């Protein structure tokens, strides 16, 4: 099958983050097995979605991982000019949810599988396809934990997030959390008889604002834009009516960290402030939503040189968005980002990828295979 044909099939699966993904996993598994790949379906703890790990070549020899996620963000927003889960071709543009983030990469890799299968590989090519990346990289840690039983320690991992086929050496880490504060309701004319949850949570909001300002003063890592870690309040919900004392309020916080900074620690002052509310009679629930580390690959790393040779493009130092690459690096596997498409087209109506980008990615994967002979 050609890459466009495969992409059409993949886009047709509405594998929205946080939902069962059995259909897309089954199709990819059957396709890979039909070309002789050794495939393992790895169910996650949720019970209704799985990672997929496949090997072409000798698994007992260190090889290369090609990693991507099968899930996509929802497509309920307005502005789509066609069915988001039906690939539409217009000139050299291919429209559909996930076309660029990142089913385009999956399609290009799968299109290269027949050529890889016919190549006498002395080093294996592994395909690591994950679930729920869009929810904060929730699926891939389960797969990484099982790598020792799946293959020899890999040489490196290439994460195919949309980068215009330019390798990227670094990205920021991220942590997100949800805080729920519960007080006591009542009539607004008697504030002395209630506990206003919105008033209480303002202590945490003030802390978040102060921490966000503090982070702008460093430490700095010049390769990023902005060159410092950041923190923000992303959502705020609470109250029923203007004359009712609000008995609950919920806020979500996000931190993005430069290399060497654990993003979870950036949220620690907010959590401590929230926990202090219990001394005033409030109940507090702090729930971590997601967390993954930053990626930092040295400029002179062999993997950076390899991708520069495979793509013919000098690697880029860093981007500020996050990927699964940092999790592979934390597991001791050198990682880099390189894939077709543009992140600026992702998560938008009429998301698209150019047909030529698919072909360029397929050519890169096949060239990697020839280096494994």
Provide a quick synopsis of the model:
This protein is an alpha+beta fold.
Features:
single chain, 373 residues, alpha+beta, 6-stranded mixed β-sheet, 4-stranded antiparallel β-sheet, 10 helices, 17 strands, 30% helix, elongated
Outline type: elongated
Distance between the termini: 24 Å
Per DSSP E runs of 2 or more residues, the count of β-strands stands at 17
User: Helical region count?
Assistant: 10
The major beta sheet can be summarized as: 6 strands, mixed
Beta content:
15-25%
Give me the Rg, rounded: 23 Å
Derived from helix and strand composition plus strand pairing, the structural class reads alpha+beta
Average residue pLDDT: 97
Helix-strand pattern, N to C? Answer: HHEEEEEHEHHEEEEHEEEHEEHHEEH
Question: What ranges have pLDDT less than 50 throughout 5 or more consecutive residues?
Answer: none
What's the oligomerization state? Answer: single chain
Strand order of the largest sheet: 1-2-6-3-7-16
Helix fraction, binned, reads: 25-40%
Structure notes:
This protein is of the alpha+beta class and 373 residues long. It has helices at residues 3-11, 22-34, 103-118, 140-145, 147-150, 197-215, 263-275, 302-311, 325-330, 355-371, and strands at 38-43, 50-56, 64-69, 88-90, 93-95, 125-130, 156-159, 170-171, 173-182, 186-187, 230-238, 244-245, 248-257, 283-292, 295-296, 334-337, 352-354. The strands form 5 sheets. Strands 1-2-6-3-7-16 form a 6-stranded mixed sheet. A 4-stranded antiparallel sheet has the order 11-13-9-14, with helices on one face. Strand 4 (88-90) and strand 5 (93-95) form a beta hairpin. It starts with a helix and ends with a helix. The mean pLDDT is 97.
